[in-house]
Design goal:
2 copies of one chain form a homodimer. Chain A is of the alpha/beta class. The first copy, chain A, has helices spanning about 20-35, 60-65, 80-95, 120-130, 135-150, 155-170, 185-190, 215-220, 250-260, 280-290, 295-300, 320, 330-345, and strands at about 5-15, 45-50, 75, 100-110, 190-195, 195, 205-215, 230-235, 270-275, 355-365, 365-375. Chain A contains 13 helices and 11 strands.
């Protein structure tokens, strides 16, 4: 396997764009990533497009707008992990020596009639509905209650995740919400599913994000900026958890693979992006990714360790909660953020001296993808 | 790149199964392919699932039924070429040395409410509708008329493609239609879009198909049956044709790549499977794949050259017209047929002494995937 660098990233600010189609959004993100790389569309030898529930052969349909060049375009749909999967496929194609330059793009539209389904397994939806819950919030409300019961927590630490991520989002010009919220506002916002108010939940979003990867020799020829390498790409499909909770165990096992591949551990990471569709998730992932022992997650956010400026900042771009979550492209927005941070181009939200970052996404049905990027 | 063998194939007879879901269909095909390979589900190190318009993360959802083992599952949607794309991804993952055993499965359901969209680009649909045509048949009716105009043909040679492929389907216990039709019946069947009657068009189908690929050392350890190797895998995304017709030019360019990779030409092939969603396509592909000069396609079918027993049999399993076309799995049904033929296990439709076969699929939006398999 050859070493691979991320040579360009681009994204459309996540927001609600009822008047824009997925073609328009995807093309803007791709052109931004190509411009960032100093490459043109015909330089791309293969593309993977992450699009969750966006209709047949979405990638080819939208990229036809740029002109089809003969380079293969494959649409992948791994729900919330679609963008991460597209990035992995592009990375592997270069790592294996098939191509020198490959593109990953993610696009998603939830407003305006072509909305995707909620990111939860259909059987879970049926089970939840039978119990009177509204999925996916119902699943995560139960999970929040379970943690509160097990670790004696109040709702406060979960609300603090929302406060922190909105604070990060306020520093990110590409975030859907660029406005801080207070603890009081999180607690007082509209109730979705007890104990979760709306500010515990990620919004309805549209958007696109893209990343160009290249072999190291090709990357070096492209210019002098700090090279960001892909140090690990791990992907597992399995049931979420052996302890009946959604999400964590698969993350633990996938992280183990990623750390081994990178020859690094949590202590070597300087920033982390995770799937915080609901606040409780981020706290679970602190533990499952190895940043604190089981049961200490609430304390980590309360201490401010996961804020920019703290020991290990999580979701520096605002996360799903504030940056937004159009499903397909979200994993590539994580790559966008991590690359900017590792290059020292993250502006007011820069994590000083960051040289390694981890991106984690889960996808409905039992998917976890983790990438580690290093400068 | 390592050599790769197809060690197992399985399919569910294509048909209309209003009472069966995609999980049920996919699992049956996967278990058949694994049994054929002498492998068990936990032996599979990675899976790609071709599913066109079957909803978010379809592959993981359906294969969860077998138990998720940690092996990554990626859903790809390249319209009619979804199954072929899944096969290519699985092949490349083994060729590159990432895995020793990988699985490609395709599943599609057009009946019972979860029906996929017609396999034609949305803009083409809008253009056709504006002209009063019903897509996709309208597109292919125009293309038939154009060929008739250019090459002085009547509708007869196109009707003969249907007669031939239904004759082949009658020999295939996994075909949707296992009944011969006469030239008269094709000409007299219900008119869909002048000059195409319904027997010029592929049916509405449900089904699934799967193939297991393995490295050569692993394949050899699995048993003594003739090894079927992947000799070429070519994939291009581009506009269909420079001459304003749908489909052919992209096939010509992709075939050129495939022949070069296989170190072979049309003269080395013993059987060919193509995307005969409409009869005119098969005749175009005779030419674009290099089996006769431009304008001679009609003559080829009239002479019987493309029938089993003829010089170069096309669509030996009945093709999309008679075997059926559930979109996602169709490319893998072509692999299923070719593998059985190359092993000498095709029963009454066996092409004697076949050692090399080509599989071609196109996908809406501008996709062509060609594989060459060799014994």
């Amino acid at each position: 396997m050859r070493e691979v660098a991320v040579v360009g990233v681009g994204m459309v600010r996540f927001d609600q764009y009822p008047q824009r189609g997925i073609t328009d959004l995807a093309v803007e993100a791709v052109l931004a990533a190509l411009a960032d790389a100093g490459l043109a569309w015909p330089d791309v030898q293969a593309t993977w497009c992450g699009a969750a529930g966006q209709g047949m052969t979405a990638g080819t349909r939208v990229l036809a707008e740029l002109g089809l060049t003969g380079a293969p375009i494959t649409t992948v749909d791994n729900a919330s992990a679609s963008g991460s999967t597209a990035f992995r496929e592009a990375y592997l194609s270069v790592a294996c020596g098939l191509y020198d330059v490959a593109l990953a793009v993610g696009v998603g539209k939830m407003t305006g009639g072509s909305g995707a389904a909620p990111p939860v397994d259909r059987r879970e939806i049926l089970q939840m509905q039978a119990m009177g819950f509204l999925p996916p919030a119902g699943v995560f409300a139960m999970r929040t209650r379970r943690r509160m019961h097990e670790y004696g927590a109040t709702i406060i630490p979960y609300a603090r995740v929302s406060v922190k991520n909105h604070r990060h989002g306020a520093l990110n010009p590409f975030a859907q919400f660029q406005k801080e919220v207070t603890l009081e506002e999180v607690l007082q916002s509209r109730l979705v599913c007890d104990p979760l108010t709306v500010l515990h939940c990620c919004p309805i979003s549209d958007g696109a994000a893209a990343a160009v990867v290249a072999s190291l020799p090709r990357a070096r020829r492209l210019g002098a900026r700090p090279l960001v390498r892909v140090a690990a790409s791990a992907f597992r499909s399995e049931v979420y958890s052996s302890d009946g909770q959604l999400g964590p165990a698969i993350t633990e096992l996938t992280a183990r693979q990623a750390y081994e591949e990178a020859g690094a551990g949590p202590e070597d990471m300087h920033l982390v992006q995770v799937h915080d569709a609901f606040t409780v998730e981020e706290i679970d992932y602190y533990e499952r990714l190895g940043f604190c022992p089981r049961g200490d997650g609430e304390r980590l956010v309360e201490e401010g360790a996961t804020t920019i400026g703290g020991r290990i900042p999580f979701n520096t771009d605002g996360g799903l909660l504030a940056r937004g979550h159009p499903i397909g492209p979200t994993g590539l927005a994580q790559v966008w953020e991590t690359v900017l941070q590792l290059r020292g181009q993250a502006g007011r939200r820069q994590v000083e001296g960051a040289t390694a970052g981890l991106c984690q996404m889960i996808g409905a049905g039992g998917v976890c993808v983790i990438h580690i990027l290093k400068r």
